[in-house]
């Protein structure tokens, strides 16, 4: 059996967003499931947009997601170089062959001339196709243009035929080549077009399966024609469904298309994002949603992908007034947090993994999020026993690690006070003071050591004061934290312990000018 070889071929003209990352993941998982190879290739023929910074960001993103490539930049392999700008001599060799075989030709039409023809077609309401003006130039005419150093492109001489794409996801799709026309293979700057370079690279790198987004389906007939012109064996094609946001529209900078690394900054573990993206348009054989990496790598089958659009539900649907102003690409972690959908599948998966992952791993993952935390420096180490204990107690409430620092800071808070007048008023209004005194007395007469025991004391306070709900819990939160919101109180009280909790209440009572006994 032929070894399965897949590839991910990003253009280094920006960050790696969710759509590109899912394409990479599908290629990676399919290669692993089929015991094959996953190749990384950099398509940087668009020299105006390609940058070294983007190249590094893409590599960093893939490594964070755990998608190590078997061949490619930094790894090498038998079919390099793996960056297109370093392969120009290879493309030229194949271009000369096509021209020699009269399967391609030089086009000396100026950009102004072509633009004029395009506008004329648009005015007539018909699609523009190159009219083939240069397809029958004589050798003398060609040499005359070359001697004048006239700029030219190289066009493919498109045969008239029906091109059938036998797609592993979309099924059989037919295209008429007469609607394609003689398209450009090599641009006037000498760099190959996307459709040309990708075919030569896929053939020479022995790619057996081309897995990419459905937006590339329209490119496929051109690529098949080039494969056939060279006599290259065709790879299998698989075009994954479109990804849409919560509003049902294609992902964009206004609909959740943000950098993969933004999810790292938000505090999601890489396994969570991998698992979530794997399910964007694919279902496991048994319908399971939460899977270990090893299971994903063994059961993934590209033919189980759906044709229907996959919903990326991580971000909330924007309000009308936000649609023209919000740009997800420009938001930092704090800004993105404001638009997260708390009920997304990603958050559910993330909470489950944070609960299950070994606490030692979680402590180390936590360290970057503690750099600016208001806690003593010695406790910022992910291996410190106190920090590990606190994190182990609160992780059940975390959807992402960026949520943890406020809870951890609460434990170390020394300079107590009320964060604002609202927090203070929760204690002073109505029966708030009575609730606080009663709760304080209950704490003094008991020895609680668990969340359940603190819940019982809070319930007992409610029975003695005839208060419940907000008028019971908010005065207790105010007298113990000085805040109007935060970690679930029984959890916090257990972390603090009775002695520290008692001291906090006495300090805040003094600030509020009330007595507790």
UniProtKB/TrEMBL annotation:
One GO BP annotation of this record: glutamyl-tRNA aminoacylation
Positions occupied by motif 'HIGH' region: 10-20
Organism annotation: Leptospira ilyithenensis
Role this protein plays: Catalyzes the attachment of glutamate to tRNA(Glu) in a two-step reaction: glutamate is first activated by ATP to form Glu-AMP and then transferred to the acceptor end of tRNA(Glu).
Keyword annotations: Aminoacyl-tRNA synthetase, ATP-binding, Cytoplasm, Ligase, Metal-binding, Nucleotide-binding, Protein biosynthesis, Zinc
Binding site for ATP: 253
An example molecular function term from Gene Ontology annotations: zinc ion binding
Renumbered ranges of motif 'KMSKS' region: 250-254
InterPro entries, per the entry: aa-tRNA-synth_I_cd-bd, aa-tRNA-synth_I_codon-bd_sub2, aa-tRNA-synth_I_CS, aa_tRNA-synth_I_cd-bd_sf, Glu-tRNA-ligase_bac/mito, Glu/Gln-tRNA-synth, Glu/Gln-tRNA-synth_Ib_cat-dom, GluQ/Sye
Cofactor info, note text: Binds 1 zinc ion per subunit.
Annotated Glutamyl/glutaminyl-tRNA synthetase class Ib catalytic domain residues: 3-314
Highest taxon above the source species: Bacteria
Subcellular location(s) of the protein: Cytoplasm
Binding site for Zn(2+): 107, 109, 134, 136
Swiss-Prot/TrEMBL cofactor(s): Zn(2+)
GO cellular component: cytosol
Subunit structure: Monomer.
PANTHER family: GLUTAMATE--TRNA LIGASE, GLUTAMATE--TRNA LIGASE, MITOCHONDRIAL-RELATED
Span of domain Aminoacyl-tRNA synthetase class I anticodon-binding: 364-506
Protein name according to UniProt: Glutamate--tRNA ligase
